[in-house]
C-alpha cells in the first residue's frame, strides 16, 4: 500500500491539512507522556510500541515529503563536546567510549526520537496476577559471543557489569525439555484446509537455545507424516531431509557455490527439488525470524546456514566459522528484557543515579528513573522524544536541530555522531556527498513485529506438549513461551498455572511477488505504519484462538495484555548476491560510513549487520575517527 501525507496514530488517521507545517504535525503527534514525571515509565506502556506514534512523523516529513524547516533564526542555547543522534546500543556505547578516550568530564548529549532509549533493544513490563513479567520487544540476545565479540565489545561488557558467563548460567536450557515439551508446527485452516498441530519437531534450528539431545523430537518420518498434506507431498519433504541427492549434479563445487549464492531457496525447492506448491509452503516462513524475509528472499547458501534441508549430498565445503557458531553455539546469552538490559546497564554507567543498584542481577528489577537522564549536571545527558531534523558542519563544530513536543531547538557539538538509521542521514545531513547519499540509501532496513502477549496461564502449551510453534503460512510465523531465564530476584514462571509472556514474530512479506528484498521491505514498512493496533490485535487473537482453542483456551478470558513492538525499520539490510553486486559491497560500506566533516557515522547499519556487537564495534570506530581529527 502507498502512504503519502498520512500517518496513523494508534488507529486514528491524522490527515495533514493544507497549510499545516511540519512543526504543527509534530505537535499533533505529541503525547502527554513526553512530560517527565514520577509516572513516566515507557516499559509499562502497551498497545503499539517500537516505532510508536509520535516517533516517526517528523522523519517522514523530512525524508519522504521533503519538507523544509526554517530554523536558522533559533538561538543555540547548549553546547557540548559531542552530540549523538540516536540513543540505541550504538549511540549509548559511543557516549561511553567518548568518555573513555576524551575524558570523564567531556560533555555529551544523546538525542533520541523515541520515548525510551535503547533503539531496537526494547523492554516491555507487565503486571499479571501481582507478578512482574518482563519481556523483550526487540533485540533479544547476544549472538555467539565467544566467536563474535571483539576486545572492544568485551571491554564494554566488563565496564558496565555484564557477565556472559552468568547470563548463560541463568538460562535453564532444560526447563522445557524436562516438562516433555517440544517444538511444533501450526497448520492453519485457511491455507491447509484444516487446523492441525503437529508436535515433536526433531529438526535443528539456527540460534537454538535447546540442546540438540533434548529436543523431545519424534522420528522424522513420524513427524512429517502427520502433516495435513497429500501422501506424495509428505514423501517429497521426507526425501528432501533423509534422501537428498545432488540437485546441482554436473556442476563443479565453485559453480555450485555460485549458483547457490545467486538463487533463492524457494526456486531451489520448486525448480531443482521439484516440490509442489503445497509442499514448498511448509518451508515458506522458516527464514522469517532470522532474515526478516521469506525463502524467496534468501539465497540457498544462506538457507544452508539456517539448517534448511536439501544440500547435504552436494559435496559442498564446510560452513564458515561464523555460520557454524550461529548453528552450534547455544543461544542462551539473554537477559529477561533482552538487550534492553544491556542498554540499561550502559545508562547506569553513564548516569548512575538513574538506575539503582550495582550489579547485572539487581538491574533486572530496578525501576529506572527517567527524570534523571537529562539533568544539567550530568556529563552525559540523554534527551528522549527529540527528533533530529538537521545536522550541519560549521567553522567551529556541528549544529544539530531537533524537535521536542512540537518545538524546534538547536544545539552545538564540537563533534557529532549519527547513530540512528543510516538511510536517514542523506536527509538529515544535506551536505553529504551525492555518491555517499546513494550508498547510505542502499541500506533499506527490514520491517518486523515482535509482539508480547501475557496470558493468565500456559496450560494450553503444556497440554499440547509444545513450547514453541512454527507457522508455515499464518501471519505470526513464530509463537513461543518466553525464554526460561531467572536472574537476581527475577524468576521465570515455574509452572503452567502461572502467568506467562508469549513472544510472537510477524514479518510482512510478499511471497510470489518477485519483488527484491528492498522492495519487499519498503512495502512491508508502509503496511506496518498504516496498520492500526486494532488490526494487529485481531490478527493476534485470531491466530492464538485457532492454535490453542481446542485445549480450552479463550482469548477473551485468558489474554491480559498485548504489546505490539512494530519495527518499520528493523534489521539492518543484509547484503546478498541475489540482489547485490558483492564485489562492490566493501567499497559501498566504507564510502557510506565516511565522516562528513566532524559528523561521524555509527549504528549496526554502518556495517550492514543487525547484531548488538556490531553496533558497539561501529560506535568505537566512529569515536576514534573523531578523536583522530583532534
Structural account:
The chain is an alpha/beta fold and 630 residues long. The chain has 26 helices and 19 strands. The strands form four sheets. Strands 3-18-14-17-16-15-8-9 form an eight-stranded mixed beta sheet. Helix 3 runs parallel beside helix 17 (340-350). The two termini are 48 Å apart.
Low-confidence stretches: 1-23, 25-33
- Number of helical elements: 26
Strand arrangement, largest sheet? 3-18-14-17-16-15-8-9
Q: What is the radius of gyration? A: 24 Å
pLDDT averaged over residues:
92
Strand content range: 15-25%
DSSP summary, beta strand count: 19
**Residue share in helix:** 25-40%
Principal-axis shape equals globular
- Structure classification: alpha/beta
Describe the main β-sheet briefly.
8 strands, mixed
* Ends distance: 48 Å
Summarize the structure.
With 630 residues, this protein is of the alpha/beta class. It contains 26 helices and 19 strands.
Chain-wise SSE layout:
Layout: E1 6-9, E2 12-15, H1 22-29, E3 47-50, H2 57-63, E4 76-85, H3 89-102, E5 108-111, E6 123-128, E7 131-136, H4 145-148, H5 151-160, H6 164-170, H7 175-178, E8 182-187, H8 189-192, E9 196-199, H9 220-224, H10 231-242, H11 253-262, H12 265-273, H13 277-281, H14 288-291, H15 300-305, H16 321-328, H17 340-350, H18 360-363, E10 380-383, E11 386-394, E12 397-404, E13 407-418, H19 425-428, H20 434-441, E14 446-455, H21 459-464, E15 466-470, E16 476-481, E17 500-506, H22 517-529, H23 533-548, H24 555-558, E18 559-571, H25 585-592, E19 599-601, H26 612-629
Parallel strand pairs: 3-18, 4-5, 4-13, 5-10, 8-15, 13-19
Antiparallel strand pairs: 1-2, 6-7, 8-9, 11-12, 12-13, 14-17, 14-18, 15-16, 16-17
Amino acid at each position: 500500500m502507498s502512504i503519502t501525507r498520512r500517518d496513523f496514530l494508534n488507529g486514528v488517521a491524522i490527515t495533514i491539512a493544507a497549510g499545516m507545517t511540519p512543526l504543527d504535525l509534530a505537535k499533533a503527534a505529541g503525547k502527554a507522556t513526553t512530560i517527565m514525571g514520577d509516572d513516566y515509565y515507557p516499559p509499562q506502556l502497551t498497545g503499539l510500541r517500537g516505532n510508536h506514534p509520535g516517533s516517526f512523523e517528523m522523519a517522514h516529513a523530512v525524508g519522504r515529503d521533503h519538507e523544509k524547516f526554517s530554523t536558522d533564526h533559533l538561538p543555540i542555547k547548549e553546547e557540548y563536546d559531542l552530540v549523538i543522534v540516536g540513543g540505541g546500543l550504538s549511540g549509548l556505547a559511543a557516549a561511553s567510549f567518548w568518555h573513555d578516550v576524551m575524558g570523564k568530564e567531556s560533555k555529551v548529549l544523546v538525542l533520541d526520537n523515541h520515548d525510551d532509549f535503547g533503539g531496537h533493544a526494547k523492554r516491555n513490563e507487565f503486571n499479571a496476577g501481582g507478578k512482574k513479567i518482563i519481556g523483550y520487544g526487540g533485540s533479544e540476545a547476544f549472538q555467539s559471543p565467544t566467536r563474535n565479540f571483539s576486545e572492544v565489545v568485551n571491554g564494554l561488557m566488563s565496564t558496565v557489569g555484564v557477565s556472559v558467563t552468568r547470563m548463560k548460567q541463568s538460562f535453564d536450557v532444560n526447563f522445557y525439555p524436562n516438562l516433555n515439551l517440544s517444538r511444533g508446527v501450526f497448520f492453519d485452516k485457511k491455507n491447509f484446509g484444516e487446523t492441525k498441530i503437529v508436535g515433536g519437531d526433531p529438526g535443528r534450528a539456527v540460534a537454538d537455545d535447546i540442546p540438540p539431545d533434548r529436543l523431545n523430537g519424534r522420528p522424522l518420518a513420524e513427524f512429517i507424516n502427520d502433516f495435513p498434506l497429500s501422501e506424495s507431498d509428505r514423501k517429497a519433504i521426507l526425501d528432501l531431509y533423509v534422501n537428498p541427492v545432488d540437485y546441482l549434479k554436473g556442476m563443479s563445487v565453485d559453480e555450485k557455490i555460485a549458483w547457490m549464492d545467486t538463487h533463492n531457496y524457494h526456486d531451489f525447492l520448486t525448480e531443482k527439488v521439484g516440490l509442489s506448491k503445497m509442499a514448498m509452503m511448509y518451508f515458506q516462513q522458516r527464514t522469517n525470524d532470522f532474515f526478516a524475509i521469506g525463502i524467496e528472499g534468501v539465497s540457498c547458501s544462506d538457507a544452508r546456514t539456517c539448517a534448511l534441508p536439501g544440500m547435504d549430498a552436494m559435496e559442498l565445503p564446510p560452513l564458515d566459522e561464523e555460520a557454524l557458531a550461529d548453528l552450534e553455539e547455544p543461544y542462551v546469552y539473554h537477559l529477561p528484557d533482552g538487550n534492553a538490559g544491556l542498554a540499561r546497564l550502559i545508562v547506569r554507567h553513564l548516569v548512575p543515579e538513574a538506575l539503582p543498584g550495582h550489579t547485572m542481577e539487581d538491574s533486572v528489577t530496578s525501576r529506572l528513573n527517567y527524570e534523571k537522564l537529562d539533568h544539567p549536571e550530568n556529563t552525559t545527558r540523554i534527551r528522549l522524544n527529540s527528533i533530529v531534523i538537521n545536522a550541519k558542519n560549521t567553522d567551529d563544530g556541528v549544529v544539530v536541530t531537533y524537535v521536542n513536543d512540537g518545538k524546534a531547538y538547536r544545539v552545538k557539538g564540537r563533534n557529532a555522531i549519527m547513530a540512528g538509521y543510516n538511510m536517514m542521514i542523506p536527509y538529515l545531513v544535506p551536505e553529504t556527498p551525492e555518491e555517499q547519499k546513494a550508498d547510505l540509501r542502499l541500506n533499506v532496513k527490514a520491517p518486523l513485529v515482535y509482539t508480547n502477549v501475557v496470558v493468565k496461564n500456559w496450560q494450553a502449551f503444556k497440554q499440547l506438549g509444545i513450547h514453541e510453534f512454527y507457522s508455515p503460512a499464518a501471519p505470526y510465523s513464530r509463537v513461543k513461551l518466553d525464554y526460561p531465564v531467572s536472574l537476581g530476584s527475577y524468576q521465570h514462571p515455574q509452572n503452567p498455572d502461572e502467568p506467562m509472556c508469549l513472544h510472537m514474530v510477524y514479518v510482512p512479506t510478499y511471497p510470489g511477488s518477485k519483488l527484491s528484498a528492498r522492495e519487499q521491505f519498503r512495502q512491508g514498512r508502509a503496511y506496518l505504519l498504516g496498520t492500526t493496533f486494532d488490526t494487529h490485535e485481531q490478527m493476534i487473537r485470531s491466530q492464538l484462538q485457532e492454535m490453542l482453542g481446542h485445549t480450552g483456551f479463550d482469548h477473551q478470558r485468558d489474554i491480559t495484555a498485548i504489546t505490539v513492538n512494530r519495527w518499520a525499520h528493523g534489521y539492518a539490510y543484509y547484503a546478498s548476491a541475489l540482489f547485490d553486486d558483492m564485489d562492490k559491497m566493501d567499497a559501498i560500506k566504507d564510502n557510506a560510513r565516511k565522516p562528513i566533516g566532524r559528523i561521524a557515522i555509527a549504528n549496526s547499519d554502518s556495517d550492514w549487520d543487525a547484531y548488538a556487537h556490531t553496533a558497539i564495534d561501529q560506535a568505537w570506530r566512529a569515536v576514534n575517527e573523531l578523536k583522530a581529527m583532534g
